[in-house]
Design brief:
This protein is α/β, with parallel strands linked by helices. It has helices at residues 2-10, 24-33, 46-54, 83-94, 132-136, 142-147, 160-170, 174-179, 182-205, 210-219, 230-237, 241-253, 288-310, 353-362, 391-394; strands spanning 13-17, 38-42, 71-75, 99-104, 123-126, 257-262, 276-279, 315-321, 327-334, 337-345, 366-370, 377-381, 384-390. α9 crosses α10 (210-219). It is globular.
């Protein structure tokens, strides 16, 4: 809510992007109800859709209670074929009279082909499923975090670890997380993936082989955390390489998956092309180590996008790997410079050699997160040190 207020002060039109069922509509309604004069529109509601098609700028007729500027919430408007031109027209004509909040789960930050650009007319922020940093209530400011990125959270009320375990079971999507039942989660997860692929992706991308896209998605949980081989997936599915890449792009556009690219600057013999892929609904991943790495990836993704949405960046999220197959799971960058290395291990074993080597080479703080343990330690690495700590002790400080 604070970020929305900050962005709304600067721009008359704000985009709220993120996966379906992450709470965008709930937050949008809360924002609207905080304004005396407001209009709520949802493209998925047939009467709302018909009203817009009959009278494109229907919000002009809003019944006002005071002289304050009305807010117009346009939910899932990206499903309208001419959404970009519509928003451009609405902004150009009414930005001095109305505030606009536009929400969508189809990657509002990735334009569809055709139409005029909206560049310069809006501010963007993302809403993700729940993360430990959000739920634990111990977040610090970006400045405080970067003043000591190896600091840990002292969990006086012992709430962080149970919250972390609950996320691992039910994901961070509000509905299954709040319900907290295994069967309820499985039903929700199956229906959620099917709805996104068989309705949203089918209707908005023109992809015909929806059954094959579902098969592709079913193959991805076992590939989480590994270099993604599109060639291997194409061979498994008996389709062309470019076809699989198109399907993967669609899954990412609709927030079923996200990918991170390798960091290649200043790394000798770095991996150049292959990406790593993660799921937003990580609770379906059976392998514990892969699920743990995926959970940390989501926490870091949320932090990086939050910093960027606030204008603190640009920050980036990458991994580091060389041709000798030495790898560190995550590297956070700022302004194209390394800032923080993060490695994941299920247990508090010895510090990963690749983490030590890449830290020495890049000269940045390093953290090795574990999925077990109740204590943390710092280990010297030449002129640097490595923090080894349970994930639930370190992650809650993320802004």
């Amino acid at each position: 809510m604070d970020l929305w207020r900050e962005l709304a002060e600067d721009k008359a039109m704000v985009f709220m992007a993120g996966p379906r069922q992450a709470g965008k509509t709930t937050l949008a309604r809360m924002i609207a109800e905080g304004h005396t004069n407001h209009v709520y529109f949802n493209w998925d509601v047939v009467p709302d859709r018909a009203r817009l098609l009959r009278t494109p700028y229907f919000f002009e007729a809003v019944e006002r209670r005071d002289p304050s500027r009305p807010i117009v919430v346009l939910d899932e408007i990206h499903k309208y074929r001419g959404w970009k031109n519509y928003l451009k027209g609405a902004y150009d004509r009414f930005h001095s009279e109305f505030a606009f909040l536009v929400t969508g789960s189809g990657r509002l930050d990735v334009y569809r082909r055709g139409g005029d650009s909206l560049a310069g007319r809006y501010a963007l922020f993302h809403l993700w499923p729940f993360t430990l940093a959000e739920l634990a209530g111990r977040q610090v400011s970006p400045a405080d975090f970067w003043s000591d990125p190896q600091a840990v959270n002292v969990d006086h009320d012992h709430a962080a670890e149970p919250t972390w375990r609950r996320l691992a079971q039910f994901s961070g999507f509000p509905e299954p997380y709040v319900r907290g039942g295994a069967r309820q989660y499985r039903r929700w997860s199956t229906a959620y993936h099917s709805q996104l692929i068989r309705e949203d992706i089918r209707d908005l991308t023109g992809i015909v082989a929806i059954g094959s896209v579902e098969t592709l998605f079913s193959l991805l949980p076992e590939r989480v955390g590994s270099l993604l081989s599109v060639t291997s997936l194409a061979e498994d599915l008996k389709v062309a390489y470019n076809t699989v890449q198109t399907w993967l792009d669609a899954l990412e556009r609709f927030y079923l998956v996200f990918s991170i690219a390798p960091w290649t600057r200043h790394v000798v013999r770095a991996t150049q092309k292959a990406k790593k892929l993660y799921l937003l609904d990580y609770a379906i991943i059976e392998d514990r180590a892969a699920r743990f790495e995926n959970m940390v990836a989501v926490e870091l993704l949320r932090a990086v996008t939050m910093w960027n949405d606030r204008g603190d960046g640009p920050f980036g999220l990458h991994f580091v790997r060389n041709k000798e197959k030495e790898e560190v799971d995550f590297l956070v960058t700022e302004k194209r410079r390394p800032r923080l290395l993060v490695e994941t291990k299920t247990a508090d074993a010895t510090i990963d050699r690749a983490l030590l080597r890449f830290q020495d080479h890049l000269g940045v703080p390093a953290v090795q997160l574990t999925d077990e343990g109740t204590t943390y330690r710092k280990v010297s690495n030449g002129r640097h040190s490595v923090l080894v700590a349970p994930a639930w002790m370190w992650l809650p400080r993320l802004p």
